[in-house]
Amino acid sequence: MGFKIAIFISGRGSNMREIVRACFKKKLKSSVELIVSNSNEAPGLYIPEIKDIDTLILDKNNIDDKSFYSLLNRSLKKKGIELICLAGFMKILKKQFIKKWKNKIINIHPSLLPAFKGLRPQHNAIQSKVKYSGCTVHYVNEKIDSGIIIDQDIIKVEDDDDEISLSKKILNKEHKLYIKVIRKLEDSYGKN
Question: Mean of the pLDDT values across residues 186-192?
Answer without folding.
Answer: 75
